[in-house]
């Protein structure tokens, strides 16, 4: 399974947001802390947060 959502930091701010990876970095959820944005990205994909983080770590290593 491929990551459909990732998180990015808002420029000039300390806020993070989830965005769809196949489009420009348009917020797909609420702004918040990095952890909140990661949880939102996992829920947008319809999977558990722990599964999302495993996939994210695996993708970064590849």
Structural account:
This protein is an alpha+beta fold. 40% of the residues lie in helices and 16% in strands. The chain has helices at residues 34-45, 49-61, and strands at residues 5-9, 16-20.
Summarize the structure.
This protein has 62 residues and is of the alpha+beta class. The protein has helices at residues 34-45, 49-61; strands at residues 5-9, 16-20.
The strands making up the biggest β-sheet line up spatially as: 1-2
How many individual β-strands? 2
Distance between the termini: 14 Å
**Largest sheet at a glance?**
2 strands, antiparallel
Number of alpha- plus pi-helical segments: 2
Overall geometric form:
globular
Low-confidence stretches: none
Average pLDDT across residues?
Answer: 92
**Helix-strand pattern:** EEHH
Total separate domains: 1
Strand content range: 15-25%
Radius of gyration: 11 Å
- Secondary structure category: alpha+beta
Determine the fraction of residues in helical runs and give it as a percent range: 40-55%
Give a quick set of tags describing it.
two-stranded antiparallel sheet, 62 residues, alpha+beta, 2 strands
Topology:
Blueprint: E1 5-9, E2 16-20, H1 34-45, H2 49-61
Antiparallel strand pairs: 1-2
Helix pairs in contact: 1-2
């Amino acid at each position: 399974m491929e990551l459909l959502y990732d998180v990015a930091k808002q420029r000039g701010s300390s806020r993070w947001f989830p965005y769809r990876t196949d489009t420009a970095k348009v917020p797909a959820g609420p702004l918040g802390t990095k952890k909140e944005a990661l949880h939102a990205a996992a829920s947008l994909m319809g999977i558990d947060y722990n599964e999302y983080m495993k996939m994210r770590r695996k993708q970064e290593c590849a």
